[in-house]
Amino acid sequence: MILRAKSFDMCSTQSAQSGFMLLRGCAFVVACIAMSLVVVPHVAANESFTVNFGEGVEAKKIGDLRPKVLALTKKPVPDVSIEYVMKRYRALFENASTPEVRIEALDRLNSLSASFGINEAKLTVDPYVQAEVILDTYQSIVDSGETYQRMDELLYQTAKATAFTGDVLESIKRLELLVGLYPKSPLVEEALFRLAENYFDLAEFSRAKEFYVKLLKSTKAPRLRAFSEYKLAWTHYRLEREGDALLSLSGLFDQYPGVYNSLFTTDLEIIPFKPNAYRGFDLPAEPGLLSDGMRLLALLNQNGDRIANIKSTAEKLGGANREPIVLRALVDQFGTKQRFFDAARLIEAYAEGATLDKALFNYSLRAVQLYAQGGHTIESWKAKANLVDRFGIRSEFWARSDAQTKNAIRDDLIVVVGELAHLNFVRMQESEVKDQRTVQQAKKAASYYLQLAALKPNTVESYEAMYLAAQALETSGQTAKAGELYATAAYSGLAHQYQAKSAYAAFYLASGRGVGGSDTAEEWSETRFELAQKYLSAFPGHDAAATTALATASAYVSSGNEESATRLFESYDAFTNAEPNQRLAAAISLAGLYYNGAEEYAGFYRAEQQYLAADQLARSIIKAQEIEGDSDVSKSQRIAVTESARRSIDDISNGIANSRFKLAELAETPEQSIEHYASIFDAFSQHPLAPDAAFNGASVAVQNKRWAQGAAMHQVFLEAFPSNKLTEISRQQLIVSLEMLGRTQEAADELMVQARLLVDKDRTLSANSAYSAAGYYAANDFPLLARESYEWLLRSHPERPELAVEALSFMVDQAEPGSAESRSASERLVSYVEENKLDDERSASLAAVNALRIASVERDAFNAMSISQPFKSSLKKKTAALNRCTEAYKRVVKFGIAEYTNAARFEMGDIYQGLAHAIMDSERPSGLSALEQEQYAILLEEQAIPIEEEAIALHEQNVKTRGNNRADEWISASYAALARLNPSLYARPIIGPSHAPVSY
Predict the structure, then answer these.
(1) Number of folded domains in the chain?
(2) Could you give the CA distance from residue 453 to residue 467 in angstroms, rounded to a whole number?
(3) Comparing C-alpha atoms, which of 561, 613, 606, 551 is closest to residue 584?
(4) Which of 5, 222, 644, 740 is most buried, taking the most CB atoms under 10 A from its CB?
(5) Contact call for residues 830 and 848 (beta carbons, < 8 A)
């Protein structure tokens, strides 16, 4: 890629002074060339002008040229518009016979267009046409052989025109002619600039370098020099002359002195240009020069040892103090390419060997941010640690820095040190085992917290940091130093959130300071007594204050002497100087001793009463603290006592609940037991024993057939503790209770809940529960709920076909007889039995009867069809219906239920008999003679007789199945049919009904 700046369209002040003018039209800059160009003022309506170009004399030398004369004469002229004037100039341009006139017309036309902003195509000249005119003019002057006094201007403008037409090489040729023939022309600098730019665009960097160098030698325009240095630097870079590129960059940077101190300048564009008094022609300010120059500087230093590159490049740019600009260039380049890791690592590597100062501290902070920006969290933390090592309060830099420097970096350093301290402290806390790694993290946390305290001496934050440092030291095993820090943090005189904790921690650690590390009772009591007095005096409202005061009594319990401890607690009211929370602690401790020593009902009753007394005492303490007390008692003390009492109520509640649970277990009557269990749930519903108490109370009620009470208590238990492990048993007992109370609809609801909950755990109970629920819903006239329950059973328990067929039978019974829903339900049941190959009697019977219902629909459709003319097609439809009937009744027979098999045979026999009669009674063709009618009847009879014989055979098969058994209704019906069909053989009395129903 060829790196280049934007091209400049240059207009020299000198050219304007000599009458040369650059005019723009349709976004194209064109030179208006004439023998003498004078800006024509706007012509007023009452003015006119004439131009006398003098006599034509062949010029032999410059002195022979005659001047042009412009004469204005004031004459009244018609008032015409600018558009009209421009139209006339346009006509003059198009019709002029000489190039000089055309160029004058073009000049006037462009002047008016620029002055009045008129750019209509019909009033102006196309830029390409203008370029051609300029070139033609030049050519005509050359061809004429006349000497032209402003040939440099003509060469310059024709160079621009040829460049516009795309002939860059021709443009270069003319510019080189200008530079070679007219070295003192005011247009030389512009020509050199255009030559350099053109060669740069053509990637002929050697030639471009040649002209940039010439331009820099000739021009004093500061911005032109800066831009040329910038482009020359890129030219050297493309020629792989990196040393020369650096020198050119140095020339660029020297024009912006502030760049050398721009390590933290966010936008390089705000750096001002070097002040100068130059008033001649110069380029306008070009944005992006510095940033692009810095990019080139980065490209020149990005390969190899970058730190070495920074140092060597800085020397070439003017000395070691130039190192920051090279560092910034590389960092910015890496940042632009999102190489945040490389950028941050470069800063750190540079800081390792550089002289540390405030700016480098801030840039090291930048490295931390770059690591974080790139998602390199670990490296970001390491960079923070390196920053503290280099610039922290324990560093050589801090030791030699003055107060102003320290104050300048203190706030940022505090933030970093605090973050490192917190990180290591959290890691220490999260460690599950105390290993070497945990100890190291604790030591680091302590070190950073101590540095943080030193950075903010004698402040609340410093003492809080000391407390956290002490905790870390305690974790690392340095208890002695930790104790000293706790004491300092506790008794500093400044209140902070860890002050009371610090005091208690100092007291606690002191208990292990025996001779040789031992902890004898005598030495413990002396040391801890001193610290306890100091702790209780300074922080009487702290949570652990009451424990410290009651340490003596607690020692009895620790040694196993509960009797002495009990006597001490029972006489605790004798200590008149005891605080209310201390008396409360004694009362609670006494209740605990009563509970632990109880074995019978009376003992647990005494424990419960003591806990109730402690509860009353705690509530009285809270109430008393809410009332304004003596002036000797501070508000903080009252608040601490209140909070302590409230926390104690939780312990008391736990004791009461445990005592009542034992009382319920040891109660002599069910009523007492239920009452104690219920009181636990009523008073302490959030207590861990509340679920067991509620369940046990309900179970005792059910076991003693107190159904209503048991049902109510189980319902409360299930609502309050839906996730408890006892909910299954509770629901089962609730269902039994509801059934015993006759509340079967509620039982059905619970059964369905149980069915769904146990679908994976206990499938047998789940299926039976759903089945029972459906039965209860049906019995309570809730058919839709019953159907939903059965449907759920079918979906969830395919392994229970015996329940499934009952569910499907229920759906058949619920459907309207004869409806499509009824037939669909019957078909569903029959298909289910068939698909699952069920052969038990119940399933087969249900399937057979429903198959018979389905077949009866086909039978009715068959019977509804008559045989009419045309006989053949009518008989075909009737036969098709017969086949459907046959398949339907065969389906009944497959289930092997005798009663329904007999019914199927009878129905088929009856169908065949009906078909035979239908054939005989069918419509006769019209137009038959008597003989033909008789013959037709014989033919019909021949058709009907085999069908009737088939009917007889089916009825006879039915009769034969009777054997020695009593004839059922279907066999009797077959006997009756045979008696009609073959009276000589079957017209005799039979046992059983005289007929059977024939419809379903």
Answers:
(1) 4
(2) 10
(3) 613
(4) 644
(5) no
User: Cα dist. 695→55, 351, 661, 743 in Å?
Assistant: 131, 72, 12, 21
- What would the two tokens of residue 38 be? 């004078």
| Dist CA 793 CA 790 (whole Å) | 5
Per-residue HEC secondary structure of 180-231 comes to HHCCCCCCHHHHHHHHHHHHHHCCCHHHHHHHHHHHHHHCCCHHHHHHHHHH
- Does some domain include residue 274? no
The 3-state secondary structure of 939-979 reads HHHHHHHHHHHHHHHHHHHHHHCCCCCCCCHHHHHHHHHHH
Rounded to 5°, the CA angle 735-739-742 comes to 140
Does one domain contain both 888 and 954?
yes
Of 926, 928, 984, 920, the residue nearest 952 (C-alpha): 984
Q: What does pLDDT average to in each consecutive run of 10 residues of the chain (1000 residues)?
A: 39 34 29 31 38 41 39 57 86 77 75 79 73 70 59 82 85 91 89 93 94 92 91 94 91 86 76 80 83 91 90 88 89 90 91 87 91 93 94 93 93 94 92 86 93 92 93 90 89 86 84 43 51 66 65 62 73 63 86 90 91 91 72 69 85 93 91 92 90 94 92 93 92 93 93 93 93 92 92 92 90 87 90 90 91 88 83 84 89 89 87 83 79 82 82 82 69 81 69 48
Token output for 575: 């200590």
Residues whose CB is less than 8 angstroms from the CB of residue 919 and which lie 6 or more positions away in sequence, other chains included: 867, 875, 940, 943, 944, 947
Helix (H) or strand (E) holding 72: strand 69-73
What angle (nearest 5°) sits at the alpha carbon of residue 126, between those of residues 121 and 127? 140
Q: Tell me how far CA of residue 26 lies from CA of 29, 85, 130, 158, 168, in angstroms.
A: 8, 19, 11, 19, 21
Is the same domain home to 876 and 899?
yes
Which residues, in sequence order, are CB contacts of 648 under 8 Å at separation 6+? Answer: 581, 584, 585, 588, 614, 618
Judgement on whether residues 120 and 146 belong to the same structural domain of the protein:
yes
Q: Which of 956, 961, 845 is nearest to 908 (CA)?
A: 956
Residues in the chain: 1000
Neighbouring C-beta atoms of residue 846, cutoff 10 Å: 24
Annotate 75-90 with DSSP letters as a single string. -------HHHHHHHHH
Q: Could you give the CA distance from residue 742 to residue 241 in angstroms, rounded to a whole number? A: 106
Residue-level pLDDT at 767: 92
**DSSP string covering 690-722, please?**
HHHHHHHHHHHHHHTT-HHHHHHHHHHHHHH-T
**What does the block give as tokens for 116?**
């009045």
Closest CA to 477 of 516, 518, 438, 528: 438
Rounded to a whole number of angstroms, the CA Rg of the chain reads: 57
As a whole number of angstroms, the distance between CA 639 and CA 538 comes to 15
816 and 752, same domain (yes or no)? yes
The model carries a pTM of: 0.47
- Closest Cα to residue 249, out of 294, 282, 216, 219? 294
Contact 171, 160 (CB under 8 A): yes
**560 lies in some domain:** no
pLDDT at 609 (0 to 100): 93
Q: What is the pLDDT of residue 27?
A: 26
Q: Which of 185, 200, 234 is the last residue of a domain?
A: 185
What domain range includes position 779?
743-823
Residue 193: CB atoms within 10 A of its CB come to 25
The answer on 852 and 811 residing in a single domain is: no
Per 3-state DSSP, the chain is made up of helix, strand and coil in percentages (nearest 5) of: 70, 0, 30
- What is the 3-state secondary structure of 314-361? HHHHCCHHHHHHHHHHHHHHHHHCCCHHHHHHHHHHHHHHCCCCHHHH
Last residue of a domain, one of 778, 798, 823: 823
**From the centroid of its chain, how far is CA 548?**
51
Residue with tokens 């931390």: 368
For residue 681, give the nearest of 696, 701, 702 by alpha carbon.
Answer: 696
Buried b (16+ CB within 10 A) or exposed e, 390-417: bbbbeeebbeebeeebbeebeebbeebb
- Do 706 and 819 share a domain, yes or no? no
